[in-house]
């Protein structure tokens, strides 16, 4: 008998929740291929280790960009690899799949996600929007007649939504999230320290000393890269204050997006949000001081989910129990 699965198909990571078992897979959304033969050489963690370190005939590809499929065949190969790895298919049956997507994607982009899941081994494929699933995974009861607001800051998109009675009332999806933050950090280090660093290094800076509010000048990290002038390897020290400066523009853009959603929210639901606060989920929610920054700018209490990285995947596990109520394609 096949086991139903929920997939958080993220730009940065793929998480899979198997019904009855919980989250059993969390790997980077990266595939390494041989450009000469087109053969897939590695998927997930193994492929991620190769990013920026491959010879000319090997490419490490992120098949998702800004929360949507940029390379259909590679996405399909990646999903198929992960699903086969979990051994969730029955002898004569395939699993039902609940898969998540950003709120503002087009019908064509939705169909691409559905088709990739079907071709990778799904029987019936159901689509739900990320902020709704993240809210459920964070423990919010979105099925009551009351307003709940969630901001899910992932790798490719930041999804902002107000929910009531199990549905999205108003929402916005911004293609500004973890990847944009990494690029901003790399650009800042290049401009200020005249050092070129890779995306992997920029991500490590963000994870280790990333802060957006009341950053500590004493918190530093040693960073290695290539000197712009000499082309030789060099090491510099980057502070948490510098990272906050690099991330400021992206943070303000997400805050403006949240203000736009709040402005479109019906007054009764706005009153509920003042009482209940805004829930932050996604990897971006782990940045130091982010809840304080959002609370200061939005004038509303802001809460951090207990497990922000896993919120969407945890939400798929809850929703799998009532899978027939979801949108089927």
TrEMBL record:
UniProt keyword Repressor, yes or no: no
Listed CDD domains: ASKHA_NBD_MreB-like (cd10225)
UniProt-recorded Gene Ontology molecular function terms: ATP binding
Coiled coil: none
Family annotation (InterPro entries): ATPase_NBD, MreB, MreB_MamK-like
Coarse class of the protein's main subcellular location: cytoplasm
Reported function: Forms membrane-associated dynamic filaments that are essential for cell shape determination. Acts by regulating cell wall synthesis and cell elongation, and thus cell shape. A feedback loop between cell geometry and MreB localization may maintain elongated cell shape by targeting cell wall growth to regions of negative cell wall curvature.
Protein name: Cell shape-determining protein MreB
Taxonomic source organism: Lacticaseibacillus paracasei subsp. paracasei Lpp123
Gene giving rise to this polypeptide: mreB
């Amino acid at each position: 008998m096949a086991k139903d699965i929920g997939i958080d198909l993220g730009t940065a990571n793929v998480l899979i929740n198997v019904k009855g078992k919980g989250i059993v897979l969390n790997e980077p959304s990266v595939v390494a291929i041989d450009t000469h033969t087109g053969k897939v050489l590695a998927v997930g963690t193994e492929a991620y280790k190769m990013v920026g370190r491959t010879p000319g005939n090997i490419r490490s590809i992120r098949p998702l960009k800004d929360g949507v499929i940029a390379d259909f065949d590679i996405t399909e190969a990646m999903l198929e690899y992960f699903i086969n790895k979990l051994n969730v298919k029955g002898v004569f049956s395939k699993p039902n799949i609940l898969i998540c997507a950003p709120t503002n994607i087009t019908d064509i982009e939705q169909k691409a996600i559905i088709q990739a899941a079907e071709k990778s081994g799904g029987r019936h494929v159901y689509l739900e929007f990320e902020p709704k699933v993240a809210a459920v995974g964070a423990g919010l009861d979105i099925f009551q007649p009351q307003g709940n607001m969630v901001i899910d800051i992932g790798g490719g998109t930041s999804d902002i939504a107000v929910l009531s009675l199990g549905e999205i009332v108003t929402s916005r999806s911004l293609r500004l999230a973890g990847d944009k933050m990494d690029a901003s950090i790399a650009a800042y280090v290049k401009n200020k320290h005249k050092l070129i660093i890779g995306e992997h290094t920029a991500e490590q800076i963000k994870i280790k000393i990333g802060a957006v509010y009341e950053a500590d000048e004493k918190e530093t990290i040693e960073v290695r890269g290539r000197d712009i002038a000499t082309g030789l390897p060099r090491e510099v020290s980057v502070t948490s204050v510098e990272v906050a400066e690099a991330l400021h523009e992206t943070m303000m853009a997400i805050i403006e997006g949240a203000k736009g959603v709040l402005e479109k929210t019906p007054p009764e639901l706005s009153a509920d949000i003042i009482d209940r606060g805004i829930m932050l989920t996604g990897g971006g929610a782990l940045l130091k001081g982010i809840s304080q920054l959002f609370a200061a700018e939005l004038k509303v209490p802001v809460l951090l989910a207990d497990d922000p990285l896993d919120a969407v995947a945890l939400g798929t596990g809850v929703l799998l129990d009532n899978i027939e109520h979801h949108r089927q394609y």
